Amino acid sequence: MPRLQNMAPAAGSKRMKGTSIYRPFVYGSTARRFNDDFPRPDHVPADHTHSWTVFVKGVDNTDISYWLNKVQFKLHDSIENHIRNVDQLKPGETFETSATGWGEFEITIKFYFVPESNEKAQAFYHHLDLHPYGDEANQKQQRETNEVQSWRYDEMVWNEPYESFFEYMTTPMDRSKGGKGGMGKGTKMMGGGMVGSTGERTASIPYSARPGQPFSKETEREEAKKLRAAQEKVDQTTKDLQKKREGIEAKVAQVRKELVDQQARLAAMGG
Ligand code: SLL
């Protein structure tokens, strides 16, 4: 039976006013330039300079397949087979597709949710970066590793989900299906010391980052720190400007007063 995206909600299921659910995910691209150490395969056209991959996955490879059924990557139409559908993943696997080429463009990434959600598919864009970007140090690092990563952390938010979907999202998966209980097939240690489970249906992210898994509570805190520092700088600049303005206003008042005095003197003289 085909899976319908817009099937009617489960009998009696209503949308939950004022409620939302979210799940984190990571998406982006990794590109490598062909060179002596990474030669262009013979079957790849001579004008293709790069090989790249675009992907969607859970943070630290946590399972997202229980809410994300299928991902459609729409590539530039100059590329062979430019509409790529990725589905039927095992828990924790990455939705990804690869190609070779010479140019950057916007990739359309479309999410098809599990039928339990009763939600329509949703699309967004990702810019494919082939060339090193960012500050000098960043570019140097990208050239040295021959890897241009353009990765983003994001959260899928469902506002006012159907009660049945909310129930589905917040109920752990039936472990008996995995065969073993406890630390069974679906359970794994995540980077940063967090125990993750493919059956857990968690919205949590790991405590600390590690190579290849840059998104964590720690990175979140670092970002917050940077934002606070930036805010403090803005506040200080605002204060400085305010002081300067007060100084200028005082000077203007002084000049104005002198002008009035002078006019009064002139008037007295002219009589
Ligand atoms: C540009 N707007 O002009 C972009 C288009 C298209 C990139 C980039 C694949 C080519 C092929 C390819 O790199 N297309 O498979 O023959 O820069």
Automatic annotation (TrEMBL):
Q: Enumerate the Gene Ontology biological process terms.
A: regulation of DNA-templated transcription
Which keywords does this chain's UniProt record carry? Nucleus, Transcription, Transcription regulation
Biased composition range(s): Basic and acidic residues: 217-243
Q: Which GO terms describe its cellular component?
A: chromatin; nucleus
Pfam families, per this entry?
A: YEATS
Highest taxon above the source species: Eukaryota
Where would you say this protein principally sits, based on its record?
nucleus
**Which InterPro entries does its entry note?**
YEAST_sf, YEATS, YEATS_dom
Which ranges carry the YEATS domain?
Answer: 15-172
Localisation per UniProt entry: Nucleus
**PANTHER family (UniProt xref):** PROTEIN AF-9 HOMOLOG
Q: What is this protein called?
A: Protein AF-9 homolog
